[in-house]
Recover the amino acids of this structure.
């Protein structure tokens, strides 16, 4: 059953990576939402994600469902250990979703302002919490022999996890600013390019800092790289994509910059996956207690059945995603909006 377990490890990684790329620009755009100077520009930004944000979140739901079915102990441990953090994340995503739908339902400046803050705060909090969660998985969680989380919410707010969280946060707001520059015109497009340039400097610096600290303080994450040196090419490519993205931003080519931004997300997620494999939830200080793809998977029948369903369903999700983004690929100029 080893092949099935590895397949599902990779498939879940793929689902979460696609989610980070697609919903990542939604979350990043949300952070910059309050930096828009006028109500008209803020409405433009919401319209830029309005047709696609809910479809983007399908990938997160699919990834979460896949973890539940393929690796039940992992789901139980993560969702119990991260309970308060996940509730905050859920509230952030709910406020973000509701604000997109309700923002323009009432012709009132106060109404729109309230939902503007809800959209921005919800998006920013979600972007940060996703990174903090990944940082904790890389660092490892305190687990007992039964795989139960032995800590509290504040255990999750350790310096390493916060560093990874900050890196992920700037990764997403750079991605979001580039999306704004692609989807809008006029003064807002110009300002979005400036946002992307500013955020990129932090993204690059935090990536380098996180890499150095990981090498110095988390030697266990390099085991797979030592056994297969070819894996070092993954973080090198991630760094290359970040640098190329910055070059494109500086040269005023947001389309290529956005492509390299997406590729850098693939590189970072792949780096994390290569560092963790086969562990899904490393045990802090006790590697033998870690939950892995091999000791926490469902039965062979379950994994096989799910794989067949995934192979049938994923092409439909991919087709819809591609169609939606092509259908709404046009630019939105703030000057075209009334009011």
């Amino acid at each position: 059953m080893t092949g099935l377990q590895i397949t599902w490890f990779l498939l879940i990684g793929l689902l979460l990576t696609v989610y980070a790329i697609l919903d990542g620009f939604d979350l990043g755009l949300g952070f910059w939402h309050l930096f828009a100077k006028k109500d008209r520009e803020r409405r433009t930004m919401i319209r830029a994600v309005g047709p696609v944000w809910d479809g983007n979140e399908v990938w997160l739901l699919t990834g979460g469902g896949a973890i539940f079915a393929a690796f039940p102990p992992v789901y139980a441990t993560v969702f119990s250990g991260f309970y308060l953090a996940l509730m905050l994340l859920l509230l952030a995503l709910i406020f973000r979703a509701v604000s997109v739908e309700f923002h323009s339902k009432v012709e009132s400046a106060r109404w729109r302002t309230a939902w503007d803050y809800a959209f921005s705060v919800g998006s920013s909090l979600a972007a940060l919490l996703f990174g903090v969660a990944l940082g904790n998985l890389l660092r490892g969680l305190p687990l007992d022999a039964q795989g139960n989380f032995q800590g509290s919410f504040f255990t999750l707010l350790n310096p390493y996890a916060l560093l990874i969280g900050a890196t992920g946060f700037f990764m997403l707001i750079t991605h979001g600013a580039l999306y704004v520059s692609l989807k809008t015109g006029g003064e807002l497009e110009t300002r979005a390019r400036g946002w992307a340039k500013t955020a990129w400097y932090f993204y690059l610096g935090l990536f380098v800092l996180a890499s150095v600290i990981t090498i110095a303080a988390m030697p266990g994450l390099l085991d797979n790289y030592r056994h297969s040196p070819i894996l070092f090419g993954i973080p090198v490519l991630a760094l290359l994509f970040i640098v190329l993205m910055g070059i494109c931003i500086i040269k005023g080519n947001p389309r290529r910059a956005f492509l390299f931004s997406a590729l850098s997300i693939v590189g970072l997620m792949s780096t994390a996956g290569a560092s963790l494999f086969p562990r899904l939830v490393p045990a802090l200080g006790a590697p033998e207690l870690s939950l892995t793809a091999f000791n926490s998977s469902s039965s062979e029948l379950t994994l096989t059945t799910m794989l067949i369903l995934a192979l049938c369903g994923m092409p439909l999700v991919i087709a819809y995603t591609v169609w939606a983004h092509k259908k709404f690929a046009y630019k939105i100029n703030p000057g075209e909006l009334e009011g």
Observations:
- The chain is about 75% helix and 0% strand.
